[in-house]
């Protein structure tokens, strides 16, 4: 019995193995062909040669034939295979591109160095002037690469000593990318204008970016050294004036020729005293720092109009090779916060000039039709800007006023104002010095000067040779004397003849209020 079961099993397996071949030879429909196909094979009956035992076996279902769509069929479809191939190629190309960009960025970061210069930086104009220089190139490659095709124009005009004018046209690299060669290093220059703008001035922001190999980064130092030397040469013998523009400082006009200190004539010893004090302060920075004292110095110059206060400050700046930053406290829009911010952002090597310091105390203007009634700087705001917690250091400040009686004692105390100097009406010493400057080469014997000084004393404008005023108030200014000399160039006799014009004029309304007409020495009314 046991042997018969083995024989039956063997024949059953053999029959199962031969069934697919039979189906193939009979061209039976395959699964998925659309014809009816049973889910299992037909029953198979087998008997051994003795016919004793019979059995029924069922073949297991095929996994491949049970799927609605085989993978072999999908990949045999050219459309499906082509789509998969294209998708694979696209993914590979994207990966290669992304990797290439990262590699390029890494190489650029490792091999190149960028230097950006903003228009708000002082060196921006230096760099544009340096880039406008002509640099002849040797070699075909260097000549073609460094050729600049986009240019911008900058026009500068100045007045000549003879009264004429001279206009210079400066070509600068325009917006875009340029290539220059400097000391064997190729540098890409990109000048861009940003979409945003300064809200105070409306001027768009601009940048200049220099790019070169990291190994050539040392050329940046040489470039800025040459640009600074070029700018210094252009401003040699000139004083740069700054004015408040929005919340920052802007150069006011073209640099002015330095005014010689000898051209400003103050009373004897006054000019030398102030100059010596300023120079001593500039040489004692370490002394201030070692003792924890704020490194700043303040001066107050007061006196009548035309006495030479502002002219002396300008000539002092030229003597020290400093610029002048001017703030008018009665300016429209000037507030406490703006004043403090401006004083902490002063340009380097600059004298601060606060004109009409009394404007912070007394509003001398009537309200205009547009509602403006003068400056809005308060007394406490001015004090905090000069000597408060937020006050800046490394500063030389000059305050000027025509009405010192309007200033509070808290303003002119030491620490805020370290030296107070009165620059008043013209004295005999000043009149003599000014005569020498204008007519010294003509009046060789000095007789003309003595005659001029005697006439001034006779009119009660200056003291006598002994310094006595005879109770007469001094009433003329150096500005008036200079105006007389300018009207009589190289004509000292004309200056002496017109000396009576130095007597201050009293207008009709003022004379009427006084109850009497004002007469000059010749009996004529001064109106």
Fold and architecture overview:
The chain has 527 residues and is of the alpha/beta class. It folds into four domains: 2-59, no CATH class; 112-234, no CATH class; 256-422, P-loop containing nucleotide triphosphate hydrolases (Rossmann fold); 428-514, no CATH class. Helices cover 37% and strands 20% of the residues. The chain has 17 helices and 17 strands. The strands form five sheets. Strands 11-10-14-15-16-13-17 form a seven-stranded mixed sheet. A four-stranded antiparallel sheet has the order 3-8-7-6. A two-stranded antiparallel sheet has the order 1-2. The longest helix is centred in the first third of the chain and has 34 residues, at 78-111. The termini are far apart.
What would you say about this model in short?
With 527 residues, this protein is of the alpha/beta class. Helices cover 37% and strands 20% of the residues. The strands form 5 sheets. It has a 7-stranded mixed β-sheet. Strands 3-8-7-6 form a 4-stranded antiparallel β-sheet. Strands 1-2 form a two-stranded antiparallel ribbon.
Task: Please tag this protein with its features.
527 residues; alpha/beta; Rossmann fold; 4 domains; seven-stranded mixed sheet
Rg to the nearest angstrom? Answer: 48 Å
What's the CATH architecture name of the largest domain? 3-Layer(aba) Sandwich
CATH topology of the largest domain: Rossmann fold
**Helix share bin:** 25-40%
Strand content: 15-25%
Distance between the first and last residues' Cα:
158 Å
State the low-pLDDT regions, or none. 1-59, 62-67, 363-367, 510-527
């Amino acid at each position: 019995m046991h042997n018969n079961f083995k024989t039956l099993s063997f024949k059953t397996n053999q029959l199962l193995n031969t069934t697919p071949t039979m189906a193939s030879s009979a061209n039976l429909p395959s699964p998925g062909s659309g014809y009816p196909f049973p889910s299992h094979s037909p029953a198979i009956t087998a008997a051994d040669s003795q016919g004793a035992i019979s059995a029924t076996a069922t073949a297991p279902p095929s996994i491949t034939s049970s799927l609605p769509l085989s993978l072999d069929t999908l990949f045999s479809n050219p459309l499906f295979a082509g789509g998969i191939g294209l998708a694979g190629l696209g993914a590979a190309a994207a990966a290669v591109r992304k990797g290439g960009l990262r590699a390029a960025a890494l190489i650029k970061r490792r091999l190149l160095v960028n230097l950006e210069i903003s228009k708000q930086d002082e060196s921006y104009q230096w760099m544009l002037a340096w880039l406008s220089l002509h640099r002849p190139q040797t070699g075909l490659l260097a000549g073609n690469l460094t050729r600049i095709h986009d240019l911008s124009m900058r026009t500068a005009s100045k007045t000549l000593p003879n009264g004429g004018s001279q206009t210079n046209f400066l070509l600068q690299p325009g917006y875009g990318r340029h290539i220059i060669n400097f000391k064997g290093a190729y540098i890409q220059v990109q000048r861009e204008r940003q979409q945003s703008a300064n809200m105070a001035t409306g001027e768009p922001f601009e940048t200049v970016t220099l790019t070169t190999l990291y190994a050539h980064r040392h050329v940046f130092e040489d470039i800025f050294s040459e640009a600074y030397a070029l700018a210094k040469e252009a401003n040699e013998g000139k004083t740069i004036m700054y004015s408040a523009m929005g919340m920052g400082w802007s150069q006011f006009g073209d640099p002015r020729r330095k005014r010689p200190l000898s051209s400003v004539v103050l009373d004897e010893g006054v000019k030398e005293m102030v100059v010596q004090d300023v120079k001593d302060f500039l040489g004692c920075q370490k002394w201030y720092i070692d003792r924890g004292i704020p490194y700043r110095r303040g001066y107050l110059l007061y006196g009548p109009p035309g006495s030479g206060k502002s002219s002396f400050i300008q000539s002092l700046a030229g003597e020290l090779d400093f610029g002048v930053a001017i703030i008018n406290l009665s300016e429209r829009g000037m507030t406490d916060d703006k004043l403090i911010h401006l004083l902490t952002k002063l340009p380097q090597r600059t004298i601060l000039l606060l004109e009409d310091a009394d404007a912070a105390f007394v509003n001398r203007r009537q309200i205009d039709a547009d509602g403006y009634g003068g400056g809005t700087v308060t007394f406490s705001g001015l004090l905090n800007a000069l000597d408060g917690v937020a006050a800046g250091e490394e500063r030389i400040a000059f305050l000027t006023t025509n009405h010192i009686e309007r200033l509070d004692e808290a303003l002119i105390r030491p620490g805020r104002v370290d030296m107070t100097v009165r620059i008043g009406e013209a004295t005999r010493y000043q009149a003599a010095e000014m005569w020498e400057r204008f007519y010294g080469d003509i009046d060789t014997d000095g007789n003309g000067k003595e005659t001029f000084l005697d006439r001034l004393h006779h009119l009660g404008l200056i003291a006598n040779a002994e310094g006595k005023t005879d109770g007469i108030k001094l009433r003329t200014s150096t500005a008036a004397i200079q105006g007389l000399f300018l009207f009589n160039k190289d004509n000292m006799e004309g200056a002496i003849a017109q000396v009576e014009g130095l007597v201050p004029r009293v207008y009709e309304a003022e004379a009427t209020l006084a109850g009497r007409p004002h007469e000059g020495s010749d009996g004529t009314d001064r109106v």
